[in-house]
Amino acid sequence: MSTTDRTARHLQLLTDTVTAVTSSLDLAQVFEQIASKVATAMDTDACFVYLYDESRDVLELRATHGTRFDDPANRPRMRIGEGITGAAAAEGQPVMIAAQAHLDPRFVSFPNLPEDEYESILAVPVLARDRLEGALNVRTRLPRAFGDDEVALLSAIAGQVGQAIENAKLYERAQRRVSELESLAVQEIHHRVKNNLQTVASLLRLQARSLDNEQAEKALAESVNRILSIAAVHDLLTEAREDDVECGELVGRLESMLGQGLGGRPVRSTLEAVTLSGQRATALALVFCELFSNALEHGRGRIDVGLTRSGGRVELEVADEGGGPHADRRDGLGLTIARALVREELRGTLELRGRAVARFPAES
Q: So what's the pLDDT on residue 181?
């Protein structure tokens, strides 16, 4: 190859490298392109690209061209200063061995990487603002002394790769920060909704105390319980910093809140961990509120509460030692609300035969 052709090829490689590192923030994709283009343009048999894991202080192989490592789940790793490529990373300088590289005292072999079949190696550190980001090397099966221009070329490419790594890390941090801010905003909304609901419940309690009408007072008390049930969901959403609610804990909280006036009646609970979305958890909370309040008002003896999941189905049960509602009894407002929520929000069924059982799919 003439000097002119070689220079043109090197310039094209630099151009292709810049294009590769600016075309994507996906490092895996960038590394694969770099390994392929470098090996082809420099007429080498293989190219290995390593990423520096600062937390573990190791170089991890992330892309190859010309050879394959057998087990991608167990990527070859080397400590800084270990192996020929690790030495280049430690020294911050290129390392070139023209022949019998596998006999160099710094050489390290990996069972799933056939590096000892190569004679020569040129390894360079990948730096960004003098900060180590990785390393890359090219290999040939026949002895080869790399020229100064080739060493400079690979070092220049490594600089571009270092910039790509730095940009990808900045993007990842920015995305993580955006996600954190979005989460904080959502949690603040849940917190404010909870506080507003509790304020409304307090106002209704004050209103109930000023009434002489027992029926109206009872209706306000039931409304307070419904509002506080919704507030409990938002309280858990605030604590969890997620969009899902662990409903075993939710039912336990509601049971304590609603059971303050039990008058000595025992409660036995079996509450499994069941996770639902915020909207479905709100429906479950309101259903439980109605069923538990109904058992308190109309039942007798011990109250049994169960929340279980079997396969893809969830079952909420509230029972007591009374006879349960008569078959011909018309639903009041509370049970009407409960039936509608189970049917429309939870896509399930509500059965009232001596005990109240709501069954619905775990997934919406």
A: 75
